[in-house]
Amino acid sequence: MQLEKEDQARFKRLGVNSYLDLALLIPYDYENLLLDGTLHVGVAQLVDVTVNSVVRTPSSIKINLYSHNFSHSLEAVFFKPKPYMQRQFLVGERYYLYGVINCSGGHCTISQPKKVTNIAGVTPKYKTPLRNDTMSRLMQKHLTHENLASEGLNEKIIKKILEVHFPKETIAIKPKTSFLPQYLETFKYLELYNNMRQLSQKRRYFPCKEKLTNTYEEWSKSLPFTLTNEQLAAIKDIQSDFAKERATKRLVVGDVGSGKTMVILASVMMARPHRAVLMAPTTLLANQLYEEALKYLPSVKTALVTNKTAKIDLQAYDFIIGTHALLYRELPDVTLVMIDEQHRFGTAQRNMLDKLVSSSDTRAHFLQFSATPIPRTQAMIQTAHIDVSLITSTPFIKDITTKVIHKEDFSSLLEHIKDEIKQDHQVLLVYPLVEESEAFLYQSISEARAFWEKRFDNVYVTHGKDKEKEKVLLDFRDKGDILIATTVVEVGISLPKLSSVIIVGAERLGLSTLHQLRGRVSRTGLKGYCHLFTYQEKSERLDQFCKTKSGFDIAELDLKFRKSGDLLKGINQSGSEYKWVDLSEDIEIVQEVKRDLGI
Ligand code: ADP
Ligand code: MG
């Protein structure tokens, strides 16, 4: 974009970096300065008038007019007129006025009209830090067919954009809501095109250190189970990435329990004979992954690196698993970098590991794994800057009964808990707070624990700030019946005997959080239960949650409920970065944009 200095400053004030950004600053209304033979009641329009008579007082001016365009008399009223106005509007003179006309009983008035000297057709009105005439000139100059085409937009879209900014006739825009549907699609497209193009421009391609071409099939036959189709699909995505000259950058997203560890292990196999490193967010999780690697990759020399492990020479190992302690160790040459539960690391930490093992001109292949399902539309948008594989199913269908419970269900809940413990199963109770709080409806952990400790043995308690929480979780896994915790406790480890989770004050939590909590039970095929305890009598959101199993469907449900919440709060407080795009609906437009951008 080549701009003169002045325009550069204007673009900066508008926050505009491209012609696409400029096109997205759509008018909120139009001034229709076309003479029209029809009177449109309640709508601003231009009239061609001659003054018949004037009544002036200091607080108002009332003018009796004859309107030439619809041969009708008209009264113009100005309240609190400026002094110079007292000298305007002379009897017998002809003017153009612009304003909203209202009629009652054949008597029509135009209140506070604007005097117009230039009849300029339909003028868009913009709400920006710039004056409207400056804005109009800026648009005339820069929003040209040529400039829009230089951004790669197709003819159809360009035509519609120009119609909105330089209309031949007024376009009906309802203030603040939306365009006519024919333009809504255009601006959804444009918004996505702009966003996804920026994302794809941010993506950097680096040559890889090594192409990785070992196979995984032999290894997968050695497993005690067959990989699911979606596990296989993710592994094949990675296989084709590995065979390329450029370094892989892929995110694998799958619900808790969808079997992402097998994708990690398959990647280690495909990287043979080169070295792989895997970073996990907690010592517990690193330990667990290490044990799984020993079990399923017996031929691979695997090392564990945490704050608690002795410093060993990592050169002797093919697969290094660790916590962020890895970032402070001398690492040998590594060709594949993986991060498990990537959402629990900051971007800086994730990139640091990648950089540690990369030279200036080549990069290791980089895989990240996330257990936070995102709406499919969003996943597709993300493919503009990182490749994405989704695992939307789990190896075995978890049999979890989810239901909403109330105060009156408490005694049957107690029976249920006793019953589960009798079968050597474990129960997780999630409370909203650690300490009691006056303003809060629900009990906190400190208020509730005595109740449970009195009635049950082997009750364990922990929470997010608890320094001992990893130890408590391990003890609970081996010896516990009941675990009392807050939502902030991320139970990264498997609790194979956990069959029930009871969430107190469930209506306060997002559906994704509820789903994460529910995902902790029944991880090894036990019959599971998820009870949502609430004082709220009826909740459509919780009822829908009970019926929905897949994390990806839940993410979409969350979107829908947030959207309906937004309608109450008003547009643009949604926290969504999109003004027009609806992530719960517009997947087809995302596909179209993806195709058009060639990504
Ligand atoms: P995630 O990391 O996605 O939360 P895991 O990789 O820990 O899930 O897998 C959950 C459980 O499912 C583990 O006990 C794992 O051994 C088992 N598992 C993984 N893949 C399969 C499969 N294809 N068939 C049966 N069980 C599987
Ligand atoms: Mg995992």
Looking at this protein, list some descriptive labels.
elongated; OB fold (Dihydrolipoamide Acetyltransferase, E2P); seven-stranded parallel sheet; 4 domains; six-stranded parallel sheet; binds magnesium ion; single chain; 599 residues; alpha/beta
Task: Describe this protein's structure.
Helix 6 crosses helix 19 and helix 12 runs parallel beside helix 19. A seven-stranded parallel β-sheet has the order 11-12-10-13-14-9-15, sandwiched between helices. A six-stranded parallel β-sheet has the order 16-21-20-17-19-18, sandwiched between helices. A five-stranded mixed barrel has the order 2-3-4-6-5. With 599 residues, it is of the alpha/beta class. It has four domains: 64 residues, no CATH class; 82 residues, OB fold (Dihydrolipoamide Acetyltransferase, E2P) (Beta Barrel), CATH 2.40.50.140; 251 residues, P-loop containing nucleotide triphosphate hydrolases (Rossmann fold, 3-Layer(aba) Sandwich), CATH 3.40.50.300; 149 residues, 3-Layer(aba) Sandwich (Rossmann fold). The radius of gyration is 33 Å and the shape is elongated. The protein has 19 helices and 21 strands. The protein binds adenosine-5'-diphosphate and magnesium ion. The site of magnesium ion has 3 residues, from helix 9.
